[in-house]
Amino acid sequence: TGKTSFTLSVPSQKFEMSLLDGSVDFVLVCHPPENPEIEHKQVATEKWVIICPASWRSGIHHKNEKNIDELKLRPFIRHQDINQDIFLPKMQTISESGITIDNLIGVRAAVIAGLGWSLVPRLLVAKAIKDGDVLEVPYELPIKDRKVCVWWLRNRFEMRGQSSKICSWLKEICE
């Protein structure tokens, strides 16, 4: 078709299948593939950030540890697969909103709608932060070992040039 397509998401066999059945040419995820027919390259560290609604601007201060104390009192939008002990080890008491969402796009939408705060991959919210739809809360998260990966089919040699371009682009926007 002449157009390149890719998917950006989290672990699932369907991403490997979408490459194998030709639905997409590339997949961007945060883990290596399991299928040996799929080539991959780890491109950059996946940075996670705490975000809150733009309407909370007056309560969030630039590089202030008290931001976290303030957030603990406000509703937390939970992704169903987030392990709080890994992502937020210093936050034992969080005010739960009662909202648990099974996908990160839904978490982002809930925060934009003003329902609470959460933590998400920076790639997911870079535009929303730039546009002022959400605020990135200054806080150093302990997650350092997650890598953004690009996948493509090993036997599609014509994709190697494009994969290099995608890897360069992704590395640039992740840093």
Report the average pLDDT across residues: 81
**Fraction of residues in helix:** 25-40%
Which secondary-structure class do the elements indicate?
alpha/beta
CATH class wording of the largest domain: Alpha Beta
CATH architecture of the largest domain: 3-Layer(aba) Sandwich
Number of alpha- plus pi-helical segments: 6
The CATH topology of the largest domain comes to D-Maltodextrin-Binding Protein, domain 2
N-end to C-end Cα span: 32 Å
Compute the number of strand runs: 9
Unreliable sequence segments: none
Percentage of residues in DSSP E strands: 25-35%
Whole-number total of structural domains: 2
Widest sheet: strand ordering: 1-2-9-3
Largest sheet: 4 strands, mixed
The CATH homology group name of the largest domain: Periplasmic binding protein-like II
Q: Please give the radius of gyration in angstroms.
A: 18 Å
Which characteristics define this entry?
single chain, 175 residues, alpha/beta, D-Maltodextrin-Binding Protein, domain 2, 2 domains, four-stranded mixed beta sheet, three-stranded antiparallel beta sheet, 6 helices, 9 strands, 30% helix, 26% strand, elongated
